[in-house]
Structure formats: structure tokens, C-alpha cells
Amino acid sequence: MKIFISQFLLLLSVTSFAQDTIYFDKDWKPSTKNNYSFYRPIPLKKVGDLVLLKDYYKNGTLQFQGYIYPNDENKYVGDIFWYDENGFDNGFRQNLNKSSQKELTYYNPNGSVWKKITYDKSGEKSKIIVYFKEKELIKGEIKDYNYIGSFSPEKPKSYYENPFEEYDEKIPSPPTYTTPAPPIVSPNGSYEPKKANDKYYTEVTYWDNGKKAKEKTTKNYSTLKTIFWDKTGKIISENLDDNKVNFEYYSKNEFTVSLRSKKEMVSTDNSYSSTETEYYLDQKPAKITKRTNGDRTEVRLYLDGKENILKYKDDKPFDGFFNDTIGANISIYQMKNGEIIGEAITKNAENNQIIAKGVYKNGTPDNGSFFLNTDDKIQLLRYKNQKQEGVQKIFENYWDYNPSEEFEMKNGLLDGYRKMYKNDSLVYESQYKNGKPFAGTILEDGKKKTYADGFLTKVEQFANYSDNLIFIEKYEKGQIESKEYFNFTIKEKPQKGYKGIFKNEKPFEGYFINVTILNEIQLVDYYEKGELKYQYSFDFMNQLDNYNFYEYNIKTTFKNGKIIDGIEYSQNDRNSLIVTGYKDGKPNVLDINIFAMHYFNRISFSLNNNTLTIKDFEKNTSIKIEQNMKQLLVSIYDKNGELIANNQQKEIKEAAPNSITFYFLENNKLKKEIKNMSEFEVLYDRLDNGVNPLFGLIYNAISIQPNSSVQAIFDQFLKSFKSEGLKGLEDLENLSYSFSDDYTLISSLRYDENGKPEIGTKITENGSEYLVELYIDKKIKTQKKATSVSELSETIKEVFKNQ
What we know:
Structural class: mainly beta
Number of strands: 59
Largest sheet: 44 strands, mixed
């Protein structure tokens, strides 16, 4: 693609009054008439506040046309087009048109009008008209992002380049996510989406004689059918699936001249195959590619009347004579049964100079030099008797002339110098002996490592994509002595770096990072004489944007390896982080941090004397659990602090209308807790609409165990979430959460408005026996007896299992 000329030449192109010409060499540098590859007639045609730029090849063929601002050739306006030396289409780009000239006209090589494009106020296309022999051929419009009419060869792309901004992509609004409420009450009615008006448009490709070559009809942005015609107007393919048969063409100004390729697809239930034939301009086959499930299986190449058959396996060369282009180079080799055999040669594609030449044995390099593209590396390697020998080179890009790394090998091991480069400048140099670093500096795993006399002496870690130092490690005889950090600060002790001294390679004195949470947040430990004294951390929610340099403002104090005051982190799964707060050696705070795609929430448990407060970070609601003389008082509040529900209600009898009987075992005896449904209904109506469904589960679990203690409830939540993470919610969802080792919920039964059993299991005690009855839809579905209390839980499972 051309290199932009100077503003002086562009100004000359616009202001010159005499008919003249500017000449360019093959690199688009200003030249003379005696040595040029391209030329530009001047003055350029002015159109409103723009100029129409046209460049030509030496043979007189149009090379480029497009509109620009007169003072800057970098500022393209509207569509721009490139052509090859034979006049065929060779490139296209769509730009915004923010000029005052809202209609742009493009031309055929003979000067006749090819197309006119009208733009709206935003600079995007609103109307496109294509002409054939100076008569309107096809017209399409764009209104409110809807396509109307017909477009050739296709509708406009949705993305526009903006010459005035480096990045101008339209960023869609983030999706909205909601937390689903549990299925407590089934919804009434159904939702039926509103039917939109159908939207149709067509995309048409024309032959250069004005007849149709392809027409695709679209309804609501889905293809209805596609028809292909030959140059005489005869239909050659008609199908509903745009992928079954497709044709591509050689074109001039988007009018088809001849067939470029034909692709046919055949599908079965479990696989699909395709055959694509590519053609020369004279319509003789140039290449036939066969694929199965997208992977190449066979390629046939045709050149000078000769056929070359290449076989592939798993989309990789398997058998045949291959000629691969790798960047600016061509590799020539033969494969048999998946192995390279014989001689392989790599040449420079432009000057035919040999870059590498070597012989393979048993599918691996044997002797000579080899240009390889393996493990995302471009390598020029030398082998002797199937082992690397001599100077080896690694390149960062296909087109690089100078290597990014160069090293010596002997008998397959690094031995000798190793040099690493950046922007063609030497940055690291080292010496190796018998495959191991001996002296100098290397870069390994993103770390700068320094060696002397065969021992590691220093390691420096830098931040990604910057020169900011993260830490320095120092070694003596290969053993770590100290480590100093530079990527954080501790609020109570601000300093440039934080150093830790090791003894026998274990933390002894100073600052150390031993624990990482959430894959990236590091905790800072402080040691004195080998004993952990403090740990520094911070609330990650307050420093989301400081990931390169955190301030640690939370201090945790340890004594004899145990926390006295501060916080402790637990992470049992990737979607949660459990934070426990301690005071005087006892836990009194529990934070459950929950993560998901585009979602975060924190459920916080705070114990103060005989009151446990549970808060929801997202909904700003809370539950308060208080200990009184008789039983627990459980209350739930909305974001304004208004009471939603509590468990204080009049005592009701079993089988009262709209009640629930909960059966549980306490000290190996069957007990009952009877609740009025109205206590829960007022809460259920608010779930997910102001109240987190999780709060409903917590409230249920606590309110049906009113004889528990506040401390026991906090301890159970702490134990469950610290050991299981979010799995601790599963027991809540099953209403099997127990806040006492002597308490086990085993079943429940709901009564309807008439006090009749509706759904659940009813347990009737009769002496030493127990009758278990399962109710569904107000009817007994099955029943079974248990001969003792210890058999009840298993009997209930069997009753449900039979359904």
C-alpha cells in the first residue's frame, strides 16, 4: 500500500493550474519521468471542500480513487478503492464522511459515472445508486439502521473508519443481568413478544454486461434464498442455504468479469464436507481444495499444465510436495505419511536467495539449516546428526531480517554465547556451559536473571508492558538471601521499597509475599526473627483501578501463628472469597464475596454481643437476629430501613389454614415448629425486587429454628462458608441448614386455606412407631412406617424415591 506523500506535494496536486503529472517510484517516493512506477495527474478535481484523488500505474491503469481533505492525504472521506495493474479490484475501505459534501461520485476508467453515495449528518451512508452505461441500475437506502431496496454487490458494512479519531468503534451497551428468584409461586398468564414488521432487502452482483450474476434475498437479516446466473443469464444454482453453493468473482468496480472460485458444501447429520475450486483468469482450474469438517484433506494445484496433489491430515501437511509461504519466504519440502523426508529448502520470495537448506531423517532435522515455524516461534536452526549445533536464531516476526535472539549450541545443548535483542539493539548477553547459564544476564519467564560463575545472583521482575520494577531478589551461591518489593505501599509505613531477609531460604526478617488471593491480589506478611507478626491487606472493592500499585491499609496481628486482631482470607472456589474478621482472637465478622460474569455482591455477617446483623451489599437490605429470653427475634429490613417481616407471630395450632409444619429431630426426639404462611408471603413478594433471594433462604433457615442461639448461628455460617465456599448455599436451598449439632430438619408439610394437607410429608407419632405420608396436590401418594426415630430420615427418603 502506498506511503503518503508530503503535504507540499499534496498542496501542489490541488493548486496547480496547468495540466501536469507527479511521478512516484515503486516505494511511492517522488521520482522522475525516467524512473517511475506510478503517476498522478494534477490538478486534482475539487468537489466541494474535498478533492478526488486518482493514481495510476505506469501502464495507464487506475491504481486508486477516493476523496480526501485537501490539506491532508491521511484523511480519507467515504469509500476508497484500490486496483491491480490489470484493473481488477484490489482493496476497499469504508470511512465516515463528515465533510459538507454529502454526495460522492465514483467513476469508471472511461470517465463515466459508476456509483453515487449519499451520506447523512452522522457521516454514514443513507443512499447508494449504481449505474451501468450511464443509467441507474440499482438503488438501496439506509434509514434508522434498516436496509431498504437493493445493494450491489452487498449492503454497507456496519463499521466505518474515522480519520479524525484513532479508535472510533461503537461500543454496545453492556448486557443487563438479574438474579433469578426461587420458584416459590408459579406465574399466572404468559408473555407473548410483539411481532415486528418484516424487513426485506436484496444484494445483487452484476456481470460486466449488466446481467445478474448473484442475487441474495434477505428477510429480517436472514437469507431466504440465493440465485446464481452465468454470463448469458442462465440460472446455474438456486438454494435456500447460502453455504451450500457459493461463487466468487474477478471484478472491476464491483462488476463481475469472470469466475474466481466455486465452493460446494455437502452436509450430513454428523459432518460436512466442501470442495472449493479456484480459477485463473482464463477460467482454467488453479487450485482445488477439499475439506471435511473444516479441515483440509486434499489440495490439487495446477501450474503450466501439471497437477500436484497434496494430502492433509488434521489440516496439516501429510503427503506430497509442498510449497509454503512463510512471511516473505517460501519453504519447499516433501512429506510422506506425515513426515518430512529428504531435502527442505527455504528461499526469499523476492530475490530467490536460499535462507536455509537441510536434510530430514525419520521426520526430524538431521543435517543442515532449517527455517521452522513451531511453538509460535520463527526459527532458523542448524543441526548436525539430528542435534542442534552452531549458531541458532529466533525471529519475532516473519518479515524480520534481524533476530530477536541468537545463541550457540553444541551437541544439542546451549553452550557459548546467547544474545537477546529489542528493536535490533542488544539488551541481554550471557554465556552458557553444558546447557546451563554461567555468566551474564538473560530474560526468562518475564524475569531478568543475572548469573556469575554458574550461580544465580539476582532476579528482577518488571510489570507487563512497562519498565516498572516489581521486585529484586538477591542470591548467594544459588540460595536466596533477600527480596525487595517496589509495587505497593503500606499506609502505616510508607517507603520506597519493602525488603525481606531470608534465613535458610525461609522468611526471617522483614516483608514477604507468600499468599495470593483472587489470582492477583497479594498479601504482605511481616516477620521478626522467623515469626509471622503482621499481615497487610486492603478491601479490593476500594482499589479496583489500582492493580499496578496497591495501598495496604488493613493490618492483621498474629501471635504464635494465630490471628489476634484483623482479617483472614479463604478461597475454596473461583467464584467466591470468604473474609473472616477477628477481635481479641475470636471471629466476629464474616464477608462472603460472590463473583460472576458482570456481577459482584457481598453478604456481610457482623456479630456484636447478642445481635447478628447480615447485610446485602447489592440490594442494601439487612437481617437482624437478636437473642431474647424466649427465642430468637429474626427481622428483615429493606434498603430504607423499613421492616419487611419478622418471626414474631401468634402461636397457631398444627393444621391451621395456610400454615406449614416443620418436622425436625432434636436430641433424638421428634419435634415440630408451626409457621403461618403469611409470615413468608410478605417476604416472597419482595424477592429479587428489592430483596436478594439469598436473604429469603437465610431468613427461612433461621426462623424455623427459633431456639438456636445467635452465637451458634454465626458459628455455623462461619464453619460452612470457610470450609465449602459457595457450596454452603446448597444446604440453605434445601432448608436443611442446622445451627446445632442436636438439630436436624427432616421434612415439612403445607396446609391449604381450609387446613387440609396440600404438599409435603406428614409424620404421625403412634407410640414407638411413626407413620410417614407423602402429600402431592392434596392427595396421599404413598405412605410408610418407621419403627423408631432413627429410621425416620431414611424412611422419608424412600417415600420420595418411589415417586
